[in-house]
Specification:
about 120 residues, mainly alpha, elongated
Length: about 120
């Protein structure tokens, strides 16, 4: 295997692990089992008091797609695929932030609906 293929496999593996982690976090956050951890505010949500289950789902899917595209681009030496992978990741971050701020209350877990606005941890 060439160096580019090894780098492509490493990049894709890292992004797949990030996508898996985000998916697990979103599921556990919805059940409320990791209330005081990063499940409330995903690390890429830069502002706002709102928790969004779909935010992490969006991050996980776009990380997976972006990582695969970036890995393919690295393996094939394709510059347009590198640009596309970065565009997918940035779009995922923006969509995740928007979704986390417009998510209806009825889609949020019961324990989170009753905490103070701006609070970063759930009720204990």
């Amino acid at each position: 295997m060439s160096d580019n293929q090894m780098i492509a496999i490493a990049i894709t593996g890292i992004f797949c692990l990030a996508a898996l982690w985000s998916g697990v976090m979103s599921a556990r956050a919805y059940r409320g089992s990791w209330r005081g951890w990063m499940a409330i505010h995903p690390p890429l949500t830069l502002w706002g008091p709102h928790w969004g289950l779909l935010t992490l789902a969006v991050y996980s899917v776009t990380s997976l797609i972006g990582g695969i595209l970036l890995g393919l681009a690295q393996a094939g030496g394709s510059s347009w695929m590198q640009v596309a992978s970065i565009a997918v990741l940035i779009t995922g971050i923006v969509v995740g932030m928007i979704v986390s701020h417009v998510l209806p209350d009825r889609w949020r877990p019961e324990w989170y609906r009753h905490q103070a606005v701006g609070s970063s941890v759930g009720r204990r």
